[in-house]
Amino acid sequence: MSNIIRFTTPRHRIQFTCINSPSKPPIIRRLLPTATTTITISMDLRRGLPPKPPSTTPIIRHRKTTSNNKNNNNRSPSSTGTVIDHRSPSPIPKASDALPLPLYLTNGIFFTLFFCVAYFLLHRWREKIRSSTPLHVVTLSELAAIVSLIASFIYLLGFFGIDFVQSFIGTSRVDEDNFTLEDDVEHHSKPKPRIMDPLPTAATLTSKKDEDIVKSVVSGSIPSYSLESKLGDCRKAASIRREALERKTGRPLLGLPLEGFDYNSILGQCCEMPIGYVQVPVGIAGPLLLNGGEYMVPMATTEGCLVASTNRGCKAIFASGGATAILLKDGMTRAPVVRFGSAARASHLKFFLEDTLNFDALSIVFNKSSRFARLQSIKCSIAGKNLYIRFTCSTGDAMGMNMVSKGVQNVLDFLQIDFPDMEVIGISGNFCSDKKPSAVNWIEGRGKSVVCESVITADVVKKVLKTTVPALVELNMLKNLTGSAIAGSLGGFNAHAANIVSAVFIATGQDPAQNIESSHCITMMEPVNSGKDLHISVTMPSIEVGTVGGGTQLASQSACLNLLGVKGASKESPGANARLLATIVAGSVLAGELSLMSAISSGQLVKSHMKYNRSNRDMTVISS
Ligand code: ADP
């Protein structure tokens, strides 16, 4: 039975091939309890080794707990998790990295220097003793030799000494030193999460007190969720939580950044128990010429081709004189479910709520929730003894879910006086309908309902979109209309509205889950101007966006809103920013539809996706 162990230190990589050795070092003994004979050691001392391709054999990662790292508080955030992966170069910068020579050459020079000057000094020492010259009287060459000796000694000690010494001291820690194991033994087939000894110290942990808190979180005596309130420092809370998580799971979080984010800005609003943040690239499409204004549209996505394609659509729209968007409706909804003892009693409430004479009184109660909330309508639906009440209200520049929920609660409290037998089952009864595909949103609308159109000239269809008007019209009919009907689609009569909606939502801090109903869209195409030009439209009944509240106030998202000129609350007319954002979303979808449909009709789709949407990198190198 043979086993390969890679022992990776910040300075060098040592590979042990072990074939049954009785006299193996303790670290190997722990790993290979049954091994007995030979150890061959190969040291790779070259600097700048390319990352090794991963082995198909299982890899178990262990943490680095060397004492020199214990006190190292200046590591980069990416090295916070102290697990070293042998496939990556060491994340800890070394002084030797600054040297212009390859490592083996540098080592050779310092070795030679050390022995030469040592020999020279010993020789001089003997001479002085023979000639009775005082030892402290040194010549210039001796002084230089002493300096060289010290320098080379420090270098060699730093290179070989520390790790060597550490393999003997701190025996309880030795097996936790950073190494990776490539083991061809079957039973090690999967790296199992395990509770790590709470030894490593995070880069950002600066004191013994922090270390104690990490240990308490790992042991469970301090709940992870309470760190922010306990420490009064959101950044530190995230760092400690992250370190505790790494120790508990044994999984490194090297690629997840910690630094560069304002953790105060999400407290109590956007995300609980943060441990870092995910980076999503933001591309730019435009200018989108819409209602006479030009907009550069930020799109956060990891799908290759998407931004490029939307950009091409924007170009076609621009060259054809722009697009027009009309806001048809603006109202957020919430529908509680209430239950009565009989269907008749449920019907009484339905009639009461739908009676126009009662609307004003209900509005006054509802509108108390916010100066921006204005009740627009109440629509009821009955299922036996249960009543679903769909309230619709305007919400200013907020997307409005909180606002409308507060208003609904006010009304339910008010109704309880006249209908004491009403049992409130839930503030949301799914007739709203939030974050689920539903016919009610498709038919009635939710949030902003927008229609957007443009006439694309024959010339632009040919030169920019590389297709023809009849080909586009036919494809739209057979794909977006007939094909979606055959599929039994609900609001999915389009090519890829969700792509554009999601990308703009993420960039501008909208709720990405509301992409579901916000992407409801029917794309229509027909020839106009004697069949020369193309009329294209997108009708989107449920675009749910806001420019205040939620994720819109975060720095990156706020910058993207600012780029569109819709950041925050509109001063002139409350709600104007959110409404403009909804029309921009629809305009961008129009551009996206135009470009993708053209790519499909001209047979370019697969080709361009192979070029821009497929990684040429060797995936086996990336997979772990
Ligand atoms: P949502 O209802 O979308 O979840 P929030 O309730 O979190 O949003 O945010 C709306 C908050 O912003 C409310 O407190 C509201 O009073 C405030 N606000 C300030 N200006 C505006 C505006 N122009 N439109 C809507 N809300 C605004």
Automatic annotation (TrEMBL):
One Gene Ontology cellular component annotation held by this UniProt entry: peroxisomal membrane
Location of this chain's protein in the cell: Endoplasmic reticulum membrane
Top-level taxon of the source organism: Eukaryota
Reaction equation(s) it catalyzes: (R)-mevalonate + 2 NADP(+) + CoA = (3S)-3-hydroxy-3-methylglutaryl-CoA + 2 NADPH + 2 H(+)
Keywords: Endoplasmic reticulum, Glycoprotein, Isoprene biosynthesis, Membrane, NADP, Oxidoreductase, Transmembrane, Transmembrane helix
Enzyme Commission (EC) number: 1.1.1.34
Topology in the lipid bilayer: Multi-pass membrane protein
Root EC class: oxidoreductase
This protein's record includes keyword Magnesium: no
Transmembrane segments: 101-122, 143-162
GO MF entry, a single one: hydroxymethylglutaryl-CoA reductase (NADPH) activity
Annotated pathway: Metabolic intermediate biosynthesis; (R)-mevalonate biosynthesis; (R)-mevalonate from acetyl-CoA: step 3/3
Pfam families found in the cross-reference section: HMG-CoA_red
Similarity field: Belongs to the HMG-CoA reductase family.
Name under which the protein is recorded: 3-hydroxy-3-methylglutaryl coenzyme A reductase
